[in-house]
Amino acid sequence: KAGVTQTPRYLIKTRGQQVTLSCSPISGHRSVSWYQQTPGQGLQFLFEYFSETQRNKGNFPGRFSGRQFSNSRSEMNVSTLELGDSALYLCASSLVGLQDSGNTIYFGEGSWLTVV
Amino acid sequence: DQQVKQNSPSLSVQEGRISILNCDYTNSMFDYFLWYKKYPAEGPTFLISISSIKDKNEDGRFTVFLNKSAKHLSLHIVPSQPGDSAVYFCAAREVQGNLIFGKGTKLSVKP
User: Fold this and answer.
1) For B46-82, how does the pLDDT look when each residue is reduced to its tens digit (9 = 90+)?
2) H or E, element range at B4
């Protein structure tokens, strides 16, 4: 079955702009979570969406937001981009929520964002 | 302050020998631990996990050990193969479901 699909794979934005990234989870998966990977901080949890509701949020400013649609596809948005937002943004899907025991999550290949 | 630490940014091992990747954590409320492997330009791939109520889980060449009293877990790969060369992330799950990742250890397995 198809894996987690993220679009776009690469993009360049200017400081102050906003960006929207898209994630299509594995068919049947209801949970989508987002992560930011940077060389200095490693992989950091952004938020999780389950059945169109945000369940969990990591320690990121309000400029980072997301949503999930009824088909479980998710988007994340970053407004007023800063140079430090340059990172690999990874989406992951899971059958049930992250809270549930024994669950594993499956990552997409990520979207590389460069802010100039 | 980092709750999950992988203190070795890199590790080099000879093919056929054992690779040991280490991870320390500070939060005793983590209930589940996972290891992910990541190749360049790809997303992390789940490798193996362990519940906090266990002390060992084995899957083929991969074994994860958990020492709760020391808040330490390790991933053993034996025998190591060149295809194992990748960045390995340790992750711990909080009760509410958040995954907290370490910064990763880059493993190089030399033929």
Assistant:
1) 899 999 999 999 999 999 999 999 999 999 999 999 9
2) strand B4-5
